[in-house]
Amino acid sequence: MTRDGRTRGVLLITVDSLRADALGVMPRVREFADRGVRFDRAFAHGNWTPFSFPSILGADPVFSDSPRVGPSRRPTLAETLERDGVRTAGINAANGFLTAHWGYDRGFGSYETFMDPSGPVGRFLAAHPTVGGWAQVLGSPFRRVANAVRGTERHHAVDTSHLLAAEERALEFLESSGTDGEPFFLWVHYMDTHTPYVPAPRHVRAVTDGAKGAAGMLRAHLRAGLGRGVSDRTLDALWDLYLGAAHQVDASVGRLLDALDERGLREETAVLLAGDHGEEFMEHGHLAHYPKLYDELIHVPLVADVPGVGSRRVEEAVGLDLLPPTVSDLLDVPGDFDGRSALPVLRGEEPVSDEPVVSVAVRGESVTQQPIPRRLDDGDLLVAARTERWTYVLHTGTDERELYDRETDPEQTENVVDAHEDEGTAPLERLEAAVRERVERIEAMERRVEEGGEEGERPETPSDVSRQLKALGYR
Protein backbone atom coordinates (compact mmCIF):
# COMPACT_ATOMS: atom_id res chain seq x y z
CA MET A 1 0.00 0.00 0.00
CA THR A 2 1.15 3.57 -0.61
CA ARG A 3 1.48 6.24 2.01
CA ASP A 4 -2.12 7.34 1.49
CA GLY A 5 -3.27 3.69 1.65
CA ARG A 6 -5.22 3.80 -1.61
CA THR A 7 -3.10 2.24 -4.35
CA ARG A 8 -2.91 -1.54 -4.36
CA GLY A 9 -2.04 -2.12 -7.99
CA VAL A 10 -0.52 -0.44 -11.02
CA LEU A 11 -1.48 -1.06 -14.63
CA LEU A 12 1.20 0.29 -16.98
CA ILE A 13 0.17 0.40 -20.64
CA THR A 14 2.73 1.18 -23.32
CA VAL A 15 1.86 1.59 -26.98
CA ASP A 16 4.55 1.12 -29.58
CA SER A 17 5.16 4.07 -31.95
CA LEU A 18 2.34 6.17 -30.45
CA ARG A 19 2.74 9.89 -31.19
CA ALA A 20 1.40 12.49 -28.79
CA ASP A 21 -1.02 13.84 -31.41
CA ALA A 22 -2.70 10.44 -31.83
CA LEU A 23 -4.64 10.96 -28.58
CA GLY A 24 -7.24 12.84 -30.61
CA VAL A 25 -8.68 9.52 -31.88
CA MET A 26 -8.47 7.72 -28.51
CA PRO A 27 -11.64 8.67 -26.58
CA ARG A 28 -11.27 6.15 -23.75
CA VAL A 29 -7.68 7.20 -23.09
CA ARG A 30 -8.65 10.88 -23.18
CA GLU A 31 -11.45 10.10 -20.73
CA PHE A 32 -9.11 8.70 -18.12
CA ALA A 33 -6.55 11.40 -18.92
CA ASP A 34 -9.21 14.03 -18.15
CA ARG A 35 -9.92 12.23 -14.90
CA GLY A 36 -6.21 12.16 -13.98
CA VAL A 37 -3.01 13.90 -15.02
CA ARG A 38 -1.88 14.51 -18.59
CA PHE A 39 1.74 15.37 -19.33
CA ASP A 40 1.62 17.56 -22.44
CA ARG A 41 5.38 17.52 -23.04
CA ALA A 42 6.50 13.97 -22.34
CA PHE A 43 9.52 12.73 -24.28
CA ALA A 44 10.96 9.29 -25.00
CA HIS A 45 14.65 8.63 -24.41
CA GLY A 46 15.22 7.11 -27.85
CA ASN A 47 13.80 6.98 -31.36
CA TRP A 48 12.74 3.37 -31.15
CA THR A 49 12.01 0.58 -28.67
CA PRO A 50 15.54 -0.73 -27.90
CA PHE A 51 16.76 2.79 -27.09
CA SER A 52 13.65 3.89 -25.21
CA PHE A 53 12.62 0.89 -23.12
CA PRO A 54 15.67 0.61 -20.84
CA SER A 55 14.35 3.82 -19.24
CA ILE A 56 10.75 2.51 -19.08
CA LEU A 57 11.22 -0.91 -17.46
CA GLY A 58 14.88 -0.77 -16.45
CA ALA A 59 16.85 1.28 -13.95
CA ASP A 60 19.09 3.25 -16.33
CA PRO A 61 19.11 4.75 -19.81
CA VAL A 62 20.37 2.65 -22.71
CA PHE A 63 24.16 2.14 -22.96
CA SER A 64 24.68 2.73 -19.24
CA ASP A 65 26.81 -0.35 -18.63
CA SER A 66 26.98 -2.05 -22.01
CA PRO A 67 27.18 -1.14 -25.71
CA ARG A 68 24.29 -3.55 -26.25
CA VAL A 69 20.65 -2.59 -26.00
CA GLY A 70 18.54 -3.85 -23.10
CA PRO A 71 18.18 -2.97 -19.41
CA SER A 72 21.29 -2.43 -17.34
CA ARG A 73 22.52 -4.89 -14.72
CA ARG A 74 20.86 -2.99 -11.90
CA PRO A 75 17.49 -4.38 -10.76
CA THR A 76 14.71 -3.63 -13.23
CA LEU A 77 11.36 -2.24 -12.16
CA ALA A 78 9.82 -5.72 -12.08
CA GLU A 79 12.75 -7.16 -10.11
CA THR A 80 12.47 -4.35 -7.57
CA LEU A 81 8.75 -4.93 -7.11
CA GLU A 82 8.93 -8.73 -7.06
CA ARG A 83 11.58 -8.73 -4.34
CA ASP A 84 9.19 -6.71 -2.17
CA GLY A 85 6.34 -9.19 -2.64
CA VAL A 86 4.44 -7.48 -5.46
CA ARG A 87 2.80 -9.87 -7.92
CA THR A 88 4.06 -9.03 -11.42
CA ALA A 89 3.02 -9.88 -14.98
CA GLY A 90 4.34 -8.64 -18.32
CA ILE A 91 2.43 -8.97 -21.58
CA ASN A 92 4.22 -7.95 -24.77
CA ALA A 93 2.21 -8.24 -27.99
CA ALA A 94 5.14 -9.65 -29.97
CA ASN A 95 7.77 -6.92 -30.06
CA GLY A 96 10.95 -8.90 -30.64
CA PHE A 97 13.05 -6.31 -28.82
CA LEU A 98 11.09 -6.80 -25.57
CA THR A 99 11.82 -10.48 -25.04
CA ALA A 100 13.89 -12.57 -22.63
CA HIS A 101 16.75 -12.46 -25.15
CA TRP A 102 17.20 -8.77 -24.34
CA GLY A 103 16.52 -9.20 -20.60
CA TYR A 104 13.02 -7.78 -20.30
CA ASP A 105 11.55 -10.83 -18.58
CA ARG A 106 13.65 -10.18 -15.47
CA GLY A 107 11.49 -9.94 -12.37
CA PHE A 108 8.16 -10.80 -13.96
CA GLY A 109 6.33 -13.68 -12.33
CA SER A 110 4.68 -14.37 -15.68
CA TYR A 111 5.86 -13.05 -19.04
CA GLU A 112 4.17 -13.52 -22.41
CA THR A 113 5.62 -12.39 -25.74
CA PHE A 114 3.60 -14.35 -28.35
CA MET A 115 6.84 -15.17 -30.15
CA ASP A 116 5.81 -18.67 -31.18
CA PRO A 117 2.45 -18.64 -33.01
CA SER A 118 0.81 -22.06 -33.17
CA GLY A 119 0.42 -23.86 -36.49
CA PRO A 120 1.65 -23.01 -39.97
CA VAL A 121 -1.12 -20.43 -40.56
CA GLY A 122 -0.28 -18.56 -37.37
CA ARG A 123 3.43 -18.53 -38.21
CA PHE A 124 2.73 -17.30 -41.75
CA LEU A 125 0.52 -14.45 -40.54
CA ALA A 126 3.07 -13.48 -37.91
CA ALA A 127 5.70 -13.17 -40.64
CA HIS A 128 3.33 -11.43 -43.09
CA PRO A 129 1.08 -9.12 -41.04
CA THR A 130 -0.20 -7.23 -44.09
CA VAL A 131 -1.77 -10.48 -45.32
CA GLY A 132 -3.66 -10.51 -42.04
CA GLY A 133 -4.80 -7.00 -42.81
CA TRP A 134 -6.28 -8.11 -46.12
CA ALA A 135 -8.00 -10.98 -44.28
CA GLN A 136 -9.59 -8.33 -42.04
CA VAL A 137 -10.88 -6.44 -45.08
CA LEU A 138 -12.16 -9.45 -46.99
CA GLY A 139 -13.79 -10.97 -43.93
CA SER A 140 -15.41 -7.77 -42.65
CA PRO A 141 -18.82 -8.09 -44.41
CA PHE A 142 -19.21 -11.73 -43.37
CA ARG A 143 -18.16 -10.94 -39.80
CA ARG A 144 -20.77 -8.19 -39.51
CA VAL A 145 -23.49 -10.62 -40.64
CA ALA A 146 -22.27 -13.27 -38.20
CA ASN A 147 -22.19 -10.75 -35.35
CA ALA A 148 -25.79 -9.74 -36.12
CA VAL A 149 -26.92 -13.37 -36.09
CA ARG A 150 -25.11 -14.15 -32.82
CA GLY A 151 -26.11 -10.88 -31.17
CA THR A 152 -22.49 -10.41 -30.07
CA GLU A 153 -19.48 -8.62 -31.49
CA ARG A 154 -16.32 -10.32 -32.67
CA HIS A 155 -13.62 -7.68 -32.86
CA HIS A 156 -11.26 -9.05 -35.53
CA ALA A 157 -11.18 -11.68 -38.24
CA VAL A 158 -7.47 -12.21 -37.57
CA ASP A 159 -5.64 -11.06 -34.45
CA THR A 160 -2.73 -9.72 -36.52
CA SER A 161 -1.23 -7.55 -33.78
CA HIS A 162 -1.92 -10.03 -30.92
CA LEU A 163 -4.07 -7.32 -29.34
CA LEU A 164 -6.92 -9.65 -28.42
CA ALA A 165 -4.58 -12.33 -27.11
CA ALA A 166 -2.71 -9.79 -24.99
CA GLU A 167 -5.98 -8.36 -23.73
CA GLU A 168 -7.21 -11.82 -22.75
CA ARG A 169 -4.04 -12.52 -20.76
CA ALA A 170 -4.36 -9.15 -19.03
CA LEU A 171 -7.97 -9.84 -18.09
CA GLU A 172 -6.98 -13.23 -16.65
CA PHE A 173 -4.36 -11.56 -14.49
CA LEU A 174 -6.80 -8.88 -13.29
CA GLU A 175 -9.39 -11.55 -12.50
CA SER A 176 -6.99 -13.32 -10.15
CA SER A 177 -5.72 -10.03 -8.71
CA GLY A 178 -9.24 -9.06 -7.69
CA THR A 179 -9.51 -11.97 -5.29
CA ASP A 180 -6.21 -12.24 -3.42
CA GLY A 181 -5.86 -8.70 -2.05
CA GLU A 182 -2.12 -8.61 -2.76
CA PRO A 183 -0.32 -5.69 -4.44
CA PHE A 184 0.19 -6.18 -8.16
CA PHE A 185 1.91 -4.70 -11.21
CA LEU A 186 0.69 -5.44 -14.73
CA TRP A 187 2.48 -4.19 -17.82
CA VAL A 188 0.79 -4.46 -21.24
CA HIS A 189 2.51 -3.45 -24.49
CA TYR A 190 0.46 -2.94 -27.67
CA MET A 191 1.94 -3.11 -31.19
CA ASP A 192 -0.94 -1.92 -33.39
CA THR A 193 0.51 1.52 -34.15
CA HIS A 194 3.81 -0.01 -35.25
CA THR A 195 4.18 -0.45 -39.00
CA PRO A 196 2.58 -2.24 -40.80
CA TYR A 197 -0.68 -0.71 -39.57
CA VAL A 198 -3.46 -3.26 -40.12
CA PRO A 199 -6.44 -2.29 -37.94
CA ALA A 200 -9.86 -3.87 -38.34
CA PRO A 201 -11.91 -1.94 -40.94
CA ARG A 202 -14.39 -0.58 -38.41
CA HIS A 203 -11.61 1.41 -36.74
CA VAL A 204 -10.59 2.98 -40.04
CA ARG A 205 -14.21 3.95 -40.63
CA ALA A 206 -14.37 5.41 -37.12
CA VAL A 207 -11.43 7.78 -37.60
CA THR A 208 -12.51 8.87 -41.10
CA ASP A 209 -16.23 9.29 -40.27
CA GLY A 210 -16.97 6.39 -42.58
CA ALA A 211 -15.44 8.16 -45.59
CA LYS A 212 -12.64 5.65 -46.13
CA GLY A 213 -12.29 1.89 -45.94
CA ALA A 214 -9.36 -0.30 -45.02
CA ALA A 215 -8.98 -1.72 -48.56
CA GLY A 216 -7.78 1.59 -49.99
CA MET A 217 -5.59 2.11 -46.97
CA LEU A 218 -3.90 -1.26 -47.40
CA ARG A 219 -3.31 -0.67 -51.10
CA ALA A 220 -1.47 2.51 -50.12
CA HIS A 221 0.53 0.53 -47.56
CA LEU A 222 1.49 -1.99 -50.23
CA ARG A 223 2.63 0.74 -52.62
CA ALA A 224 4.81 2.33 -49.95
CA GLY A 225 6.18 -1.07 -48.93
CA LEU A 226 7.16 -1.86 -52.51
CA GLY A 227 9.15 1.36 -52.69
CA ARG A 228 6.89 3.10 -55.18
CA GLY A 229 7.27 6.44 -53.48
CA VAL A 230 4.92 8.23 -51.15
CA SER A 231 2.48 10.60 -52.80
CA ASP A 232 0.33 12.93 -50.71
CA ARG A 233 -2.60 10.58 -51.28
CA THR A 234 -0.63 7.55 -50.11
CA LEU A 235 0.68 9.46 -47.10
CA ASP A 236 -2.86 10.48 -46.12
CA ALA A 237 -3.98 6.87 -46.43
CA LEU A 238 -1.12 5.63 -44.23
CA TRP A 239 -1.91 8.29 -41.64
CA ASP A 240 -5.56 7.17 -41.56
CA LEU A 241 -4.44 3.56 -41.11
CA TYR A 242 -2.19 4.64 -38.26
CA LEU A 243 -5.01 6.54 -36.56
CA GLY A 244 -7.29 3.54 -37.08
CA ALA A 245 -4.71 1.41 -35.29
CA ALA A 246 -4.60 3.91 -32.41
CA HIS A 247 -8.41 3.79 -32.22
CA GLN A 248 -8.19 0.00 -32.09
CA VAL A 249 -5.78 0.17 -29.15
CA ASP A 250 -8.08 2.66 -27.45
CA ALA A 251 -10.99 0.21 -27.61
CA SER A 252 -8.87 -2.49 -25.96
CA VAL A 253 -7.66 -0.08 -23.27
CA GLY A 254 -11.31 0.78 -22.64
CA ARG A 255 -12.11 -2.89 -22.10
CA LEU A 256 -9.25 -3.18 -19.59
CA LEU A 257 -10.55 -0.13 -17.71
CA ASP A 258 -14.05 -1.62 -17.71
CA ALA A 259 -12.60 -4.83 -16.29
CA LEU A 260 -11.00 -2.87 -13.45
CA ASP A 261 -14.41 -1.37 -12.66
CA GLU A 262 -16.20 -4.73 -12.86
CA ARG A 263 -13.70 -6.37 -10.53
CA GLY A 264 -13.80 -3.53 -8.01
CA LEU A 265 -10.17 -2.60 -8.69
CA ARG A 266 -10.45 0.79 -10.38
CA GLU A 267 -10.46 2.91 -7.21
CA GLU A 268 -7.32 1.23 -5.85
CA THR A 269 -5.37 0.86 -9.10
CA ALA A 270 -3.17 3.49 -10.72
CA VAL A 271 -3.32 3.41 -14.52
CA LEU A 272 -0.43 4.84 -16.54
CA LEU A 273 -0.22 4.98 -20.34
CA ALA A 274 2.64 6.09 -22.59
CA GLY A 275 3.95 5.73 -26.11
CA ASP A 276 7.46 4.26 -26.13
CA HIS A 277 8.42 6.56 -29.04
CA GLY A 278 6.64 8.26 -31.93
CA GLU A 279 6.33 7.71 -35.68
CA GLU A 280 7.38 9.79 -38.67
CA PHE A 281 5.13 10.54 -41.62
CA MET A 282 7.63 12.32 -43.89
CA GLU A 283 8.09 15.32 -41.56
CA HIS A 284 11.83 14.93 -42.07
CA GLY A 285 11.85 12.81 -45.20
CA HIS A 286 10.98 9.27 -44.08
CA LEU A 287 8.31 6.95 -42.74
CA ALA A 288 8.35 4.87 -39.54
CA HIS A 289 11.07 5.60 -36.94
CA TYR A 290 14.53 5.73 -38.40
CA PRO A 291 17.36 7.19 -36.29
CA LYS A 292 16.38 10.83 -35.80
CA LEU A 293 15.50 12.80 -32.68
CA TYR A 294 12.80 15.24 -33.80
CA ASP A 295 9.46 15.61 -32.05
CA GLU A 296 7.47 13.29 -34.32
CA LEU A 297 9.65 10.47 -32.93
CA ILE A 298 10.29 11.68 -29.38
CA HIS A 299 7.13 13.54 -28.25
CA VAL A 300 4.79 10.90 -26.83
CA PRO A 301 1.59 10.76 -24.80
CA LEU A 302 1.86 10.19 -21.06
CA VAL A 303 -1.22 10.08 -18.87
CA ALA A 304 -1.81 8.91 -15.31
CA ASP A 305 -4.98 8.14 -13.38
CA VAL A 306 -3.97 7.69 -9.76
CA PRO A 307 -6.34 7.12 -6.82
CA GLY A 308 -6.63 10.23 -4.69
CA VAL A 309 -5.02 12.49 -7.30
CA GLY A 310 -7.11 15.17 -8.97
CA SER A 311 -7.27 16.20 -12.60
CA ARG A 312 -4.57 18.48 -14.01
CA ARG A 313 -2.26 19.05 -16.97
CA VAL A 314 1.51 19.30 -16.68
CA GLU A 315 3.13 21.61 -19.22
CA GLU A 316 6.80 21.15 -18.26
CA ALA A 317 9.07 18.70 -20.09
CA VAL A 318 9.37 15.24 -18.57
CA GLY A 319 11.07 12.02 -19.66
CA LEU A 320 9.71 8.48 -19.56
CA ASP A 321 12.40 7.55 -17.04
CA LEU A 322 9.95 8.82 -14.42
CA LEU A 323 7.89 5.64 -14.92
CA PRO A 324 9.94 3.07 -12.91
CA PRO A 325 10.39 5.22 -9.79
CA THR A 326 6.77 6.44 -9.98
CA VAL A 327 5.40 2.89 -10.18
CA SER A 328 7.70 1.84 -7.35
CA ASP A 329 6.60 4.84 -5.28
CA LEU A 330 2.92 4.15 -5.94
CA LEU A 331 3.34 0.65 -4.53
CA ASP A 332 5.47 1.95 -1.64
CA VAL A 333 8.46 -0.14 -2.70
CA PRO A 334 11.95 1.34 -2.32
CA GLY A 335 13.95 1.30 -5.53
CA ASP A 336 17.12 2.62 -7.12
CA PHE A 337 16.43 4.23 -10.49
CA ASP A 338 18.11 6.82 -12.67
CA GLY A 339 14.87 8.81 -13.06
CA ARG A 340 12.83 10.65 -10.44
CA SER A 341 9.39 9.67 -9.19
CA ALA A 342 6.56 11.86 -10.46
CA LEU A 343 4.27 11.02 -7.54
CA PRO A 344 5.02 14.33 -5.72
CA VAL A 345 4.27 16.13 -9.00
CA LEU A 346 1.05 14.16 -9.48
CA ARG A 347 -0.05 15.14 -6.00
CA GLY A 348 0.90 18.77 -6.53
CA GLU A 349 3.47 18.63 -3.75
CA GLU A 350 6.53 19.48 -5.88
CA PRO A 351 7.22 21.19 -9.21
CA VAL A 352 8.62 19.28 -12.17
CA SER A 353 12.42 19.23 -12.33
CA ASP A 354 13.79 21.68 -14.90
CA GLU A 355 16.51 19.29 -16.06
CA PRO A 356 16.53 18.76 -19.86
CA VAL A 357 15.23 15.42 -21.15
CA VAL A 358 17.96 13.51 -22.99
CA SER A 359 17.35 11.08 -25.89
CA VAL A 360 19.71 9.02 -28.04
CA ALA A 361 19.87 7.31 -31.42
CA VAL A 362 22.54 5.48 -33.38
CA ARG A 363 22.79 6.16 -37.12
CA GLY A 364 24.69 4.02 -39.62
CA GLU A 365 26.14 5.17 -42.93
CA SER A 366 22.62 6.11 -44.06
CA VAL A 367 19.43 6.85 -42.16
CA THR A 368 17.76 3.78 -43.67
CA GLN A 369 20.72 1.42 -43.28
CA GLN A 370 19.80 -2.24 -42.80
CA PRO A 371 20.16 -3.95 -40.46
CA ILE A 372 19.09 -1.01 -38.35
CA PRO A 373 21.67 -0.24 -35.61
CA ARG A 374 21.01 -2.04 -32.35
CA ARG A 375 24.44 -1.61 -30.73
CA LEU A 376 26.51 1.44 -29.96
CA ASP A 377 29.23 0.45 -32.44
CA ASP A 378 26.76 -0.04 -35.30
CA GLY A 379 27.00 3.65 -36.23
CA ASP A 380 27.43 7.17 -34.91
CA LEU A 381 25.76 8.34 -31.73
CA LEU A 382 23.16 11.12 -31.83
CA VAL A 383 22.18 12.76 -28.54
CA ALA A 384 19.39 15.29 -28.03
CA ALA A 385 18.30 17.37 -25.04
CA ARG A 386 14.90 19.04 -24.63
CA THR A 387 13.29 21.57 -22.40
CA GLU A 388 9.73 22.82 -22.55
CA ARG A 389 10.67 25.05 -25.47
CA TRP A 390 14.02 24.03 -26.97
CA THR A 391 15.50 20.99 -28.76
CA TYR A 392 19.26 20.52 -29.20
CA VAL A 393 20.81 17.63 -31.20
CA LEU A 394 24.49 16.67 -31.37
CA HIS A 395 25.84 14.29 -34.05
CA THR A 396 28.91 12.96 -32.25
CA GLY A 397 30.46 11.50 -35.40
CA THR A 398 30.63 14.85 -37.19
CA ASP A 399 30.16 17.34 -34.32
CA GLU A 400 27.21 18.77 -36.26
CA ARG A 401 24.81 20.61 -33.94
CA GLU A 402 21.16 21.52 -34.29
CA LEU A 403 19.05 23.87 -32.16
CA TYR A 404 15.32 24.41 -32.62
CA ASP A 405 12.91 26.78 -30.95
CA ARG A 406 9.74 24.69 -30.93
CA GLU A 407 7.67 27.69 -29.85
CA THR A 408 8.32 29.51 -33.15
CA ASP A 409 9.33 26.49 -35.24
CA PRO A 410 7.24 23.49 -34.07
CA GLU A 411 8.18 21.45 -37.16
CA GLN A 412 11.90 21.83 -36.29
CA THR A 413 13.11 22.87 -39.73
CA GLU A 414 15.14 26.02 -38.92
CA ASN A 415 18.44 25.30 -37.21
CA VAL A 416 19.29 28.38 -35.14
CA VAL A 417 22.38 27.07 -33.34
CA ASP A 418 24.78 29.56 -34.95
CA ALA A 419 22.73 32.59 -33.94
CA HIS A 420 22.46 31.43 -30.34
CA GLU A 421 26.12 30.51 -30.12
CA ASP A 422 27.04 34.04 -31.20
CA GLU A 423 24.74 35.42 -28.52
CA GLY A 424 25.92 32.95 -25.87
CA THR A 425 22.36 32.22 -24.76
CA ALA A 426 21.56 30.28 -21.60
CA PRO A 427 19.21 27.75 -23.33
CA LEU A 428 22.00 26.51 -25.57
CA GLU A 429 24.49 26.27 -22.70
CA ARG A 430 22.08 24.21 -20.56
CA LEU A 431 21.21 21.86 -23.40
CA GLU A 432 24.84 21.39 -24.43
CA ALA A 433 25.75 20.58 -20.82
CA ALA A 434 23.05 17.91 -20.61
CA VAL A 435 24.17 16.32 -23.88
CA ARG A 436 27.83 16.48 -22.87
CA GLU A 437 27.04 14.73 -19.58
CA ARG A 438 25.33 11.83 -21.40
CA VAL A 439 28.12 11.52 -23.97
CA GLU A 440 30.75 11.44 -21.21
CA ARG A 441 28.73 8.81 -19.35
CA ILE A 442 28.59 6.60 -22.45
CA GLU A 443 32.30 7.10 -23.18
CA ALA A 444 33.13 6.11 -19.59
CA MET A 445 31.08 2.94 -20.06
CA GLU A 446 33.01 2.11 -23.24
CA ARG A 447 36.33 2.50 -21.39
CA ARG A 448 35.16 0.24 -18.55
CA VAL A 449 34.04 -2.43 -20.97
CA GLU A 450 37.25 -2.25 -22.97
CA GLU A 451 39.51 -2.31 -19.91
CA GLY A 452 37.55 -5.08 -18.22
CA GLY A 453 37.11 -7.28 -21.27
CA GLU A 454 33.42 -7.57 -20.41
CA GLU A 455 31.94 -7.56 -23.90
CA GLY A 456 32.70 -11.08 -25.15
CA GLU A 457 30.91 -12.63 -28.13
CA ARG A 458 27.72 -11.16 -29.47
CA PRO A 459 24.88 -13.50 -28.46
CA GLU A 460 23.01 -14.94 -31.42
CA THR A 461 19.43 -13.74 -31.76
CA PRO A 462 16.95 -16.65 -31.42
CA SER A 463 15.15 -17.61 -34.64
CA ASP A 464 11.68 -16.74 -33.34
CA VAL A 465 12.86 -13.26 -32.30
CA SER A 466 14.63 -12.75 -35.63
CA ARG A 467 11.49 -13.80 -37.49
CA GLN A 468 9.36 -11.31 -35.60
CA LEU A 469 11.86 -8.48 -36.02
CA LYS A 470 11.89 -9.13 -39.77
CA ALA A 471 8.08 -8.94 -39.84
CA LEU A 472 8.35 -5.53 -38.17
CA GLY A 473 10.83 -4.30 -40.79
CA TYR A 474 14.08 -4.86 -38.85
CA ARG A 475 16.33 -6.93 -41.08
Task: Give your account of this protein's structure.
By secondary structure, the chain is an alpha/beta fold. The protein has one domain: Alkaline Phosphatase, subunit A (3-Layer(aba) Sandwich). Helices cover 38% and strands 17% of the residues. Strand 7 (280-281) and strand 8 form a beta hairpin. The radius of gyration is 22 Å and the shape is globular.
Descriptive key words:
15 strands; globular; 475 residues; alpha/beta; nine-stranded mixed sheet; four-stranded antiparallel sheet; Alkaline Phosphatase, subunit A
Judged by helices, strands and strand pairing, the structural class is alpha/beta
The major pleated sheet works out as:
9 strands, mixed
Report the mean per-residue pLDDT as an integer: 86
State the helical fraction.
Answer: 25-40%
Tell the overall outline: globular
Number of helices: 16
**CATH-defined architecture:** 3-Layer(aba) Sandwich
What's the CATH C level?
Alpha Beta
Give the low-pLDDT segments: 121-128, 142-148
CATH topology category name? Alkaline Phosphatase, subunit A
Would you count the extended β strands for me?
A: 15
